[in-house]
Every structure is written in structure tokens, then in C-alpha cells.
Amino acid sequence: MRKIKTIIAMAMISTLVVGSMAGCTKKAAVVTPEKTPAVVESTKPVSLALWEQDDPTAQKILDGLITEFQAANKNITVKRTHFETEDLRKNYTTASLGTTGPDIVLGPNDNLGVFVPGSLVQPIDTILGADFMATIDPNALDAAKFSGKQYMLPDRNGNEVLVAYNKKLVPTPPKTFEELEAMGLKLKKEGKVEYGLVFNEVEPFFSVGFLGAFDGKVFDDVNAASPKPTLNTPAVTQWMTFMKKIHTEGLIPKEADGTVADNLFKGGKAAFEINGPWGFADYTKAGIDFGIMPIPTINGKSPAPYSAVKGYTVSEGVKDADKLAAVKAFLIFVNSKDAQLKMVDAHQQTPTNLEAMKDAKITGNVLIAGQKDQLAVATPMPIITQMRAIWDAIKPVQQDVLSGKTKPEAAGAIMQKKAEEGIKALGL
Amino acid sequence: MNGTVEKLKKKKGNSSFGIGQGKMTPFFFLAPALIVLTLVVAYPLIYEIIISFKNVTLLNLKSQKYPWIGLDNYKNILADSLFYSTLIRTILWTAINVFFHVSVGLFLAIVLNRKLPGKALIRVLLILPWAVPQYIAALTWKGMYNVEYGSVNLILTKLFGSAAAIPWLSIPSWTFVACIITNIWLGIPFMMMISLGGLTSIPDELYEAADLDGATGFQKFKNITLPLLKPILTPAIILGTVWTFNMVNVVYIITSGAASDESQILITMVFKRAFQYFRYGQSAALSVIIFLILLAFSTVFIRAQKSED
Predict the structure, then answer these.
(1) Out of B170, B261, B275, whose CB is closest to A255?
(2) CB–CB contact A405 B172 (8 Å)
(3) Touching check for B58 and chain A: CB below 8 Å?
(4) B58 to A385: CB separation less than 8 angstroms, yes or no
(5) ipTM score assigned to the predicted complex
(6) Is the pLDDT of residue A114 over 80?
(7) What is the share, in percent, of chain A residues with pLDDT greater than 70?
(8) How many domains does chain B have?
(9) Is the CB of B146 inside 8 Å of chain A's CB atoms?
(10) What residues in B contact A101, CB-CB < 8 Å?
(11) Spans of chain B, pLDDT less than 50
């Protein structure tokens, strides 16, 4: 018994000693990696942390690209971590204060409204070089600037919401919202659908496009030094009255978040869904024969949903020359023509690589071509920090209007007050 | 003889390196725990108290140079009417939750402590809510609260007609009730297990003696079970209160990010201020206030229990 105890104790001590020395011997133990034909000249082992908030299909494709990149650059390891949009933003902000933050973040351009004022990211054009930047769509690059500087390398352009319709239920798509409304209500009356139209009624991102049809906007001047919210306006009252009307008449569900809306449309229980291109892959998987169209005109005026770009930012903390070289090699690789074309399969948006944009896979893609009309009337989403206060102000009030707690005519004033308080709370 | 004793003493001294002899010995044993507690509890707490007196915003976050603003963060919080309405809601939230956790948990423990067919299976079923990750449980409950497609309203409308459907997720006061129901469901197994552990340690002789004296079931519960469970229930109630008071997951998920001020509690307010508005100084001040409230509660509760004894 005593012998066994001694053996176990010795084994545990050796494990502890070997374990604690493992970190020290790492450098000596690493076999010099083969020199690869890729961009990175240094052969020093580099590990890159990538955080993203993409959909499952995009995550799979991204993993494939990472494997391909690692095979060509044996000294570089890329570790991908997934977060939901809001979690990514707050976790990155917190992690960047210490040393645990990621090196690269893939996300929407409104992240810049937090990352740049917080000094959490660095300009990306100086890392990638003018030659590579010249291969990217200048319009997309413009949308990925903050205070005139290029902090993001966009990999897709769009991110807008539009209308997807079930072709089985809607053989001829409506031309106006009034037609859509009549069609939806008729289908409901006939028992063919549970609701005519569905969308995420919790997040105002999906409904804010309607505000454009009433000539409204959320800031007086988004480029001003301190933009003022413009929510206490007749346009907001009209928008909320419109929302209440389609809710009361039963065109849209009494309550629906993204999951409920998606499930109703994918189950053939809703004729139309306002959603983004990121949902298309799921519709196909669910076997829905669908078409897309811009959100139709309301009283002859086009709604203006927000459009955005999504792309890569590099942490301010990446200073080491080898790491910067690895970041450059990785970003150039995942934004090459072939890599971006692969990602299109998942996000179904226009790529930003100029060569990829000209490819037959894009020019002949009905789902991407179909987005052009919506993008033509879309508004670039404000990416200033104050936008957080706007979303936080609209979200609960829209919910209160739909539930009947707040009257549409009172909504604007409440939103305005909340937005002003929110901007003050941000310390801006 | 003397030589042998000395040798033995020497040998003994060598094998323990002298640490078993001195006055410092207890401190050596406590040292590992003290170091860990200092690192994971004391340091963050002190740091939090320090930044609660500073102005930390998104703009100066990375620089780590935060201007000292004295009591301004505290003054701003205490001058805000939202703080008081949220505090009242939080107290209500905690009181209702802990009341049901303890009463239902204790009731189930008493039932399980008796002879019961299929006791093992029932026990597993009752512990299940504890085994499900809170995040998943809250998401599932949120799905169940949908006004048309959620199972809760489907049952209600089947039983009482279509007018019985409750807008759980769209009216803030109902959302708050939905959060309470979910958290009661989540918290019962903990109290049940703690009470069950306590019940099994009560000697049967006491109940037998009470039976001989002709005591009723309620008298036995009041005069034997409850007093003997008190040493176990007191820390459990304090823990339960602190956990419930600071429950972010359930409230944050069911209220879709504590969007409405009318369904949030103090801890979601801290969460929003820190991670949505990046006001770490303000949220640290609010956290210190929460800490003081809970410290005061725990102290008063323990003292009250002791004085009763």
C-alpha cells in the first residue's frame, strides 16, 4: 500500500514538473516549420485568434478556408471563435483591455462605432498595402471607414433586409405594399397561411426601413460632430401608426422574434418575410421555393432599410512584426477572389473583391442580382457610437406600441427622450 | 535512552521541515486558500470600489487613465428615479422567488423523505431543472411564452378559451411575471436538495417521542423539523437571495436584453451600463450599492436568526 502511494506521489510530482516546464520548453521543442510559398517570410510559429458572428453555414466555409490557409502556412495557426453580434462587441471591448482579446474580428461595420472611439482597432490599409486595397470595391471600402480612416476590410456588401416570398403561395409578387397587404390578408382568410407577412418584431433593424417611406430619419446629420436624434417627428408617428395597423389587422403575428418569423416562413405558414440575405441558405435547406424583391412602396414611397458592409478589423494590440505579417497573409487569403466566392454560398451578398464581383457566379446569381433594387433605395446604416442609443430607444417603445401599451402618436416623444438619455449615458 | 529520544525527535523534526511545530502552522495551511481568495475576490472587489469613484467611458477605456470624480457616480445613481423603481422591482423579484424556492423546495423534500413508490425517479425528475444550463432553460421558457405558439398559452387557451392567452413577452409587467415563473422553476431543486440533506440528519427518535406525546403532523413540523433545519436553511436562504438578486441570465434572455426599463432588475441595469454603454465607473458604483444592500441583508438575517435561537 505504502509502495503504491509512493509510486502515485512520484507520478504526480513528475506530471506537475513536466507540465510546468512544458511552457518553458515550447520554443526548443518546436520543429522549425517548412518554409511555405505563401506571403509570410518568417517561419516563427504564430497563433491568430479570429472572432466572428457569422451564420452556421458561413462558419463551416470559414473553417474550410482556415484549414486551407494553415496547410499553406504551417507556422500559422488560426483559432476561430463564434459569438452572437452583441456578445462579440462587448466581449471584444472587455477582452481588449487585457491581453486576451482576439487579433482579428469579422463583423458588421457598426462595430467601428465602438471599436474606433475605444481605440481598440488599428487602420487596416497600412497593414495590407495599397496594392491589395486596390483589388477591393471602393464603395464598400468607403462604408468601412470611420472618421475618414480605413479601419475595416469589407468582405461583403449589403446586409440589408428585403422581402422574401413563397412562390407557391405568391405566384406573382406584389408591386406595392398595399397589394402585399391585400394578398397576405386574403391568404390568411383562405386559411392558406397563418400570417401574410412576418419579420423580427423585437429588433427595430427589421422595421426601421418603413421610416424611410415616411421621409423620416433617426439623426439630423449623421456626419455632425454631435448628431441629434430626430425621433419626435411626424414621420415616426406615421411609422408607428403603420406598424400598429398591420399588427391589429393581423397581417403580422401578435408577437414574433427572429426565430418565430423564420420558422413560420420556412414552414410555409407565412407568405412573405422581411429578412436579410443571410436567411436564404436556410430557406433552401427547408425546401422553400422562394423569390426576393424590395420592400414594396407604401403610398408610392419606397421604404429605406439600412444597408451595411461586413468585414475584418485588426486589434490595436497586434504590434509584433511576425503577427502583423501573419494577419496580412490571412486577410489577403480569405479575401482573395476564390475565397470570397466560397463565402458567397453562405451569405448570398455581393463580394467586395473586384475580380470576384465580375465572376459569373455573382453576375448570374439571381439572389444577388435581386438585391440590387433594394440596395439602390437603402440607406447606409449610421455607424456612429450614438446609434446604440437610438436602437435602445426604439426597441422597447416599438414593442409597447404593438402591445397597445403606448399610442403611436406618443411613441416619438418617448423614443426621443430615451435616445437623448442614452447618448448622455454613453458619455458623448 | 536519552540519545534515542533525541534521535527520534530529530528524525521527526526533519520529516516535517519544522512546519508542524511553529505558531505559523495554521497560516501555512490557510495560505493557498487565502492567495486564491485574494486574487479572485479581494482584488476585483477593491478594483471595483476604486473605479466606482472614477469616470470610465468608451473614450478613455483603453488608456486606463480614468479621472477621479469622487462621489459623482453614486450621486447620479441615487438621484435617478429609475434606480428606486428598479430597486423595488428587484426586492419584489427576490422575495417572491426565494419564498417559492424555500416553501416548494421544503415541501418536496418532506414528500421525498417519506416512503414513496418510484422515489428515485421522482427525485431525478425534480433535480432536472438544476441540471439544465440556465441559458438553455431560459431560451426554452422564452419559446414557451410566445403568445400564439408557446406551450404555456396553448395550455391556457385550451383550458380557458382564447381570451386566456397572456402576452408574456410583449407587455413588460407580464414579462416580469414570466421571468419569475422561470426562475422559481430553476431554483426549487437547490432548496429541495439542501432541505432533503437536512431532513435525513434529523433523528427519527424525536418524531417517535413526539408521536408518543400525541403531537400532530403540523406540530412535529413546527417544533422539530423547522428548528432543526434552521442551521442548514439559513445559509441556503442567504445564498439563494444573493443569487436571485443578481440573476442576469433569466431576466436578460426572457426580456430580450432587458429592453424595457419596466422589466429589468438592478443587475441587468449594471450589465447594460457596463457592456452596452461602456460606463464601467457608473456600473461599478451600482455594483457597490448592490453589494452593500446584500451585505446588510445577510448581516441582519443572520443576527435575527441568532437572536431567535
Answers:
(1) B170
(2) yes
(3) yes
(4) yes
(5) 0.78
(6) yes
(7) 90
(8) 1
(9) yes
(10) none
(11) 1, 12-13
Contacts of B66 in chain A (CB under 8 A): none
Is residue B80 situated within a structural domain?
A: yes
- Of A9-18, A25-34, A332-341, A400-409, the poorest mean pLDDT is in A25-34
Min distance B231 CA to chain A CA atoms (Å): 39
The answer to whether A123 and A315 are in contact (CB under 8 A) is no
Does A93 touch chain B if contact means CB atoms closer than 8 Å?
yes
Identical fold for domains A46-158+308-368 and A162-307+380-425, yes or no, is yes
Within an 8 Å CB–CB cutoff, is residue A294 touching chain B? no
Q: How confident is the model at residue A105 (pLDDT cuts 50, 70, 90)?
A: very high
Domain boundaries, given as residue ranges, for chain A: 46-158+308-368, 162-307+380-425
Structural domain for B156, as ranges: 72-308
**Smallest Cβ distance to A97: which of B61, B170, B257?**
B61
Residue A20: pLDDT band (50, 70, 90) is very low
Residue B172: its chain A contacts at CB < 8 A?
396, 400, 405
User: Does B172 contact A at CB distance below 8 Å?
Assistant: yes
CATH H-level, domain A162-307+380-425: superfamily: Periplasmic binding protein-like II (3.40.190.10)
Please indicate if any CB of chain A lies within 8 Å of the CB of B171.
yes
The pLDDT of residue B7 = 53
Tens of pLDDT, residue by residue over A258-306, are 999 999 999 999 999 999 998 998 999 999 999 999 999 999 999 999 9
What kind of architecture, by CATH, is found in domain A46-158+308-368?
A: 3-Layer(aba) Sandwich (3.40)
pLDDT > 50? residue A12: no
**Chain A CA closest to residue B258:** A396
Contact A426 B147 (CB under 8 A): no
Judge: A119–B63 Cβ closer than 8 Å, yes or no.
Answer: yes
B167 CB within 8 Å of a chain A CB: yes
Q: Hey, are the CB atoms on A425 and B277 less than 8 Å from each other?
A: yes
Q: Is residue B49 part of a domain?
A: no
pLDDT, tens digit, 9 for 90 and up, residues A373-402: 999 999 999 999 999 899 999 999 999 999
Task: Give the CATH number of the domain where residue B297 resides.
Answer: 1.10.3720.10
**B180 domain residue, yes or no:** yes
Q: Of the candidates A396, A400, A392, A399, which has an alpha carbon nearest to the alpha carbon of residue A422?
A: A392
Would you state the pLDDT for residue A25? 33
Stated pTM of the model: 0.81
Q: Is residue B56 part of a domain?
A: no
What is the pLDDT at residue A225? 85
